[in-house]
Amino acid sequence: MSDHNNVVARISAAYEKKGFRFQSRADNLLHGSKVPVKDQTRLPIRPLPRTGIVGYIPLSKLSSGVIRKKSISIPDAVVAYLDILGFSQKKNQREIEDSLLDFAGPLTAALDERQKLRGTIFSDCAFVSASKENAADLLSALRYAFVSWTADGIPVRGGIAVGKYKETQTYYLERVRDNFISRLFHGSAVTSAVRTEQSGEGALLFATEACSRFYQQRYGEPIYTLGAGRIIGWSDDPKTLYWFAGVSFVRILRLLSLKGAETHPIIAALWNNVKYSMTVNPDITWLVISVILSSPIASNAIRSKVRASLGVDIPRDSGLVRMTRDWLRKNKESLRSLVDIADMDSSITPLLRKKHAKDRLI
Q: What is the pTM of this model?
């Protein structure tokens, strides 16, 4: 270290001889200028001292510390990345904690049933991976989780991709104590899954072109398109789609009641949820839309905005009207529950929640 210090001292002396000094400007960073030299800054909190044996090791003898036998490499993998939408905007602490539990629970149960899947959950995000041989189990697990997320009113967006996946285990990670949790994983499928999840709007499962082609060719899965994006279906269950489309649609009505809310960033995402449900099961989707629009939470002005947003008129055939009336008469409690779940999301602005606090269904 003495040679290093001597070199630094000679360089500093050379600059000082030419009249260069350091000056702190308004941005509080140092810039070269001809002003008196400031004393060297010493940070109050010092770095953690090194422990153990410190010495020089030749480059030829350096080791990465990787435990090859415990590391996992999947050359042809499927990886899904999942994220709770609007989580960072949630205001209610109880809701935040419940959302995390409701997000992690179904995934944990699914992976416990399918031991060949790999899963990592951190905060409001998760990764699930598998080899292509177990790709059906991975998608089945995601669809299982989606049913629970929908019932709990948690909007989750996913990205799914094919490519390489690798987990690295090291000697240091094995000996670290319980206050540190880590899983070192990477690969082209991981990167693509994250990028794909961020590419679309809505609580949907967006897929890369290669991944959608894989599921279509091997399993006959239908692939949906939304703009330039590709979507693999979450669910085809009528009850699940009822809740998925219904909660999304109630939130749309809440936002449309605000002035200028047609351009609200979440509106497009919610409409995409409804469009997906309508594509998979138009009957149940039109029914839930008609039921909600026939309830007191939808004013005439809101109904007009909905027709304009959909680009088509809402079906008014006698069969649908009769079915809607029968459903409302028999399922008032179910509709109340749907509206309550829709209004539980504290990421919706306080103004919006206050405006509709007194809404009641009769």
A: 0.79
